[in-house]
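Record type: monomer structure entry
Structure origin: computed from sequence
Chain ID: A
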Amino acid sequence: ELLNVKAASAALPREFEGIYDEEAYRRTQEYLGATSRFSLVGAGVDLALLLLFWFSGGFNALDQFLRSFGFNSLVTGLLYIGSLLMAQSIVELPFSIYRTFVIEEKFGFNKTTPAVFVSDLLKSLFLALLLGGPVIAAILWFFEESGTAGWFLAWTGIAFFSLLLQYVAPSWIMPLFNKFVPLEDGELKSSIMRYADGVDFPLSGIYVIDGSKRSSKANAFFTGFGKRKRIALFDTLVSNHPLQELVAVLAHEIGHFKKKHIVINMVLSFVNLGVLFYLLSLFMLNRGLFQAFFMADVSVYGSLIFFMLLYSPAEFVLSLFLQALSRRHEFEADYFAVTTYSGGASLSDALKKLSRSNLTNLTPHPLYVFLNYSHPPVIRRIARIREHLAKQSQ
């Protein structure tokens, strides 16, 4: 984080002249500093509390307390994991409040009212209990009752559930947090449908969502599969960008589908999930693992928690590959937009404006990009788009 802050250029990159003024660029760097300091403090507090709880015997104390009620192992496991997740949420709550109502407010992004914040919190808790509880129960049951096949059953079961969730989320879950209003008939809708038809990309609907009730930041995304694919445009995006830029942004998103990026990412996530469950099976009920966490008794639910804590470094290494692949996919989607949409050059203009409105860091350190970025730096994307346009004009 500190290296990234120091790498921020004091001079505005030439590509953004006319998009940023001196004040806007200064605020970009102030926002980078504020969010970086906040991330460091948050990570430090999380690590300190984890180590304190670990080495003070907190994991064992909680386990012995819950065992004293005499519940079966499945109920005890749900209570154990649920208690730890709830404690983590309580620790994160003040940081979430500070980020939303102090940092985001200071830089003009926050539109979230306390009522919306609390409502989101309660809805998220409800979904965690409704969906997360059964998922955790299923994982524990598979490993307790199925022996060596437990990891495979857990993998296939959770993979199927994930697919089902992605199918129903646009209709049943997302509307709990945002209003999806069909885009009115007009030039924008006609242009989007005409482009989608031209690249053989059927759409079931185009919607505008009320992202402005939480933030002034803009975005666009696709949801659903097959005939249920729909476009979601933030109202902040629609209100701040002209037609060609909006279609160019959506052409980029369609590029992810046409280039099979969605399928590739899904397959990789399922493979990753399978590897995770297989490795978990190797550590299941490992007494040395429980001794490291000062536990008096071994359990499936304890194995799950402790393995996930130890798996985090390996997961970070794996994320380097996935993020590098994601950055490559972003370049490919940009190329698709530029080569299939007559107004593809507008994608560059849209990226510049989005960077300004979102206070994006224009000059991140290369090492920070390698470790953390799922998208290439915007300045590299614009340079690559310029190269594609130059080749087209030859």
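Annotation 1: Residues 300-340 form the longest helix (41 residues).
Annotation 2: The chain is about 70% helix and 5% strand.
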